[in-house]
Amino acid sequence: MNTKIYTAGLKFMLCNAVKRLYNGEVIFHHSLDHGIYASIISDKIVDANELGNLKSYMDKMVSQDIVFHKKVVSKQEAYDFFMKKGNVEKAINVNNISNLTVSLFEFEGQYNYFYSHDMPHSSKEIPLFDLYFVRENELILLYPYNGKMDFTFRHNVYSSFHLYDEWLNKMGLNFVSDVNKIVAEGSIRDLIKKNDIMVDQSVYDIAKRVEENKKRIVLIAGPSSSGKTTTSKKLSLYLSSLGFKAHAISLDDFFVSREDTPLDEAGNRDYECLESLDLELFNRSLKDLLDGKSVSLPTYNFLSGEKEYKREPLEIGDNDILVIEGLHALNPNLMNLSDTSMVYKIYISPLTPLNVDRHNYVSTTDNRLMRRIVRDYRTRGRSAEATLATWASVRKGEEKYIFPYTDTADAIVNTAYVYELGVLKVYVEPLLYNISMDSEFYYESRRLIDNLKAVYAIPSEYVEADNLLREFIGGSCFEEDEK
Question: Which of 110, 283, 439, 468 sits in a 20 to 30 Å window from 170, CA-based?
């Protein structure tokens, strides 16, 4: 059973348990490590002890082997059902989709929809889970990863979600339907500008902190398609505006020769591991630069699989700052500096707190995947199917080499845009529709398409040239700088 189906069943079971125990409701906000952050809306105060009682009740539901039933209803029936329940945002989403029918699932007499075509057969099939206490009436629903419970509370990521959520609340944006309304009213350009200012301000604030703390090296790490390249170049510009000479360096340019890339357990080249980088060359170059020497930095040719030396030699002074971005930038084994006080570490990711409805949120992982599909097609001519084929390996590398170090960062930059799915939809939908039914990735492509059905398309002409999304859809002014 895949994770999407497993978690859909857990979410439904938690909703029913809260309804029966407290006559309350659960709102799911976003993912956090191998868990889903949620809040309980009820007159009952659910503290740590009470959360234990809730867990015991759900364990009892598992032992009772309660069956999930699928029921296909007309679009009108689904709309009327959600309106009667007061789930207005769900009703609006039903109204916006083109389907004539809607698949609901029934569990203990309750009906709901969790953007999953399937559910577990019964509660007995989802025995592994836990409830992590955050604070009163707030919890994280934990699910198994690779067959076992493995969860770490990421404080920095949690805080970043909440800061963005506060901004969305000020803007009156809680659901995708709220953004759709702005699109329909013709006011999306104004929202784009506001959102851009908010994201850019967070990068400028970091530039100020780098200045105040007299840092000479800035490390930027983040998972695939988080926008490391644009963020590093934008931060470099902000540092330059403060009187520094900033130099953006990509760790990707320090890959070893393709034939020397380490192999994974399956015998394939492992481009995600730290040893795929020429660490000796990187550290020698870094030391020489800090010692005031002139250094020829490589540029990696991804077609030939070799490093090339075409750039002018770099020499830095006391007022220069190195901005280094890459998958392993936060890995403590990357650098062998004797003085780490000169280093400022940043973690970036599109941590989207926007909800589709009260029980379904915009997935950060899906968001990054769609960014990558669009960029891979545009820059490398890769099909959506080819990108989906490598995604599991990419995710495995992130779990192993990035996420464990997120709480070591001095700052987090949330690179999500509340409107971005509407922009990406225009580019990614045709690529996903091109995956044929005989492909092993057909159902995954349809799942992504289904997730976009409730999203209104947004013209990319409203997206500025320095916007991070341009790194994926094209037209970035920073790409022009590289030519």
Answer: 468
